[in-house]
Design a protein that fits this description.
It comes from Strigamia maritima (European centipede). Helices cover 39% and strands 13% of the residues. By secondary structure, the chain is of the alpha/beta class. A 5-stranded mixed beta sheet has the order 3-2-1-4-5, sandwiched between helices. A hairpin with a 2-residue loop joins strand 2 and strand 3. Helix 4 packs across helix 5. The longest helix has 25 residues. The protein is globular.
Length: 243
């Protein structure tokens, strides 16, 4: 897909019925959630059209398949884990879906530089601003950290891991989390998503600003250029698999 690609739901009479769209989406989602985070946004985005999909949706899905064929050498390198630092990148778009105007958000969790877990989803509610969509994504990311910390604690490994650091490129969402940016327009968010701030104030994690160019979670927010995807994949996968 090219940068700026936009797709909308097609009408019932325009749907392509003689193409295994839904089954391919299911297979690609399995791959994306297990070993290929670089295709997760594309698959998640295209899965919105499982019921009604036009020739344009099918074309985009075929492009994802071609991309996988061209990048079959990509593999997660767990041996690159060099220390006990646990850190997470988080990012979000705003009003990406042109039918519902809902946003997409995603996160990538690393342990010592090695990829540990990742996620991308369309947000359940419509965000009123970029800051709102970024903060909602941040809340979902913090839940992932909490779950992973609980897992480490269960196996008596929590003492070996540093306090997690969350990296976001949204200064406004960071300030909102720190309680430095709040007014009546954001009161509904304070009530609904107060859990993340509570955990932050208790010291369960720290948060820092990161340049957008260094934020690998950017791969979960929009269609990117080939050069941008390649640059992010070099960091996400550390290196490429070779026989």
């Amino acid at each position: 897909m090219t940068v700026g690609t936009t797709l909308v739901r097609c009408k019932e009479g325009e749907s392509v019925e003689d193409f295994p769209y839904r089954s391919l989406i299911g297979s690609l989602m399995f791959l994306a959630s297990r070993s290929r985070p670089d295709i997760l946004y594309a698959v998640t985005y295209l899965s919105q059209f499982n019921v009604l999909h036009s020739a344009a949706h099918v074309k985009c899905l075929k492009q994802v398949l071609q991309y996988i064929v061209n990048t079959e050498h990509l593999a997660i390198n767990l041996s690159h884990c060099v220390n006990e630092s646990l850190f997470l990148h988080v990012d979000a778009s705003w009003a990406t879906n042109l039918d519902s105007f809902k946003s997409f958000g995603g996160h990538i969790l690393y342990l010592g530089g090695a990829l540990l877990s990742w996620g991308c989803k369309k947000q359940g509610s419509v965000a009123g601003s970029t800051m709102e969509s970024e903060y909602i994504a941040l809340v979902h990311a913090v839940k992932e950290i909490y779950w992973m910390s609980s897992l480490f604690e269960y196996y008596d490994l929590l003492s070996y891991v540093n306090v997690p650091t969350v990296f976001s490129d949204s200064m406004s969402s960071i300030q909102f989390l720190r309680n430095d940016l709040e007014n009546t327009k954001t009161k509904h968010m304070r009530i609904k998503y107060c859990m993340a701030r509570d955990w932050f104030l208790k010291g369960y994690f720290v948060i820092e600003k990161i340049p957008t160019t260094h934020n690998t979670a950017d791969i979960f927010t929009k269609w990117l250029s080939g050069d941008r995807i390649h640059a992010l994949c070099e960091f996400i996968f550390i290196n490429y698999y070779s026989d």
